[in-house]
Specification:
The protein contains five helices and nine strands; from the N terminus they run βαββββαββααββα. The N terminus is likely disordered. It has one domain. A nine-stranded mixed sheet has the order 2-3-4-5-9-8-1-7-6. By secondary structure, it is α+β, with helices and mostly antiparallel strands.
Length: 253
Amino acid sequence: MKMSSLSRVPVVGLCVVSLGIAAARAQSSPGATPKTPDLLGIYTGMPAAAARAQLQKHSSTINVVTNNPPNGFSLNTPDPKNPEMISVFLTVPPNDPAVWMIQRTQNFSALNPMSTTALLSALREKYGKETLTNDRGGGGLYLYWIFDQTGKLLSSADMGLTGCNASFFINYVSQGAPQSANAVDPKCSASFFAVTAMLNRRDAQLLEAYSVELVNLPFAMKAATATGNANNAAAEQSRRNQIEKADSNKPKF
């Protein structure tokens, strides 16, 4: 996942918090707000217009802008004491535009500190007691909240889900699912619905910055497959049109 705002600050420690749900939401209209995780009131599967309106509620002075490339939209707050960036990623045609990932990043100055304890407490209050932990030493501490498809928190889960990386899916959703069967871990594309928090700590107590990400990889993979199929069909039709034109372009002898 791209973390340009975090790369400009010294990394003392890294903590990643994830939540997975084994369910892909249907690509059709999602209907009522689901009983699944949300970030700032935005949930995966939410229609683009509703998500954009919800994100705009986060600021009365700064407008939400379309991403470049236009695969979603974002809201950036350039406060020198607490700069913040929120990005929402959408499915593309032939899918209806809907949210498949939301990212929120905040940096903190000494004048506006936040503690690791405060952030982890907020995450646990919202998502519950973590299902898995994975201490990677110098690589950071990872905590995971794993849910089943009904939204029930699980007491245990497959450790293989800790290797799922949503950043790979940005291109997949925009351009189509990869042709190679080995390009995507089937556990991720089938069952990883996650909230991920990445903490950049100033010291043992204070944060330099953090990033929180909500992602539904099964939903993203379904959308990517539909996009890829549509692209392939369009390419095949273009090829057939070329052949028909070529067949009619007979020379005279």
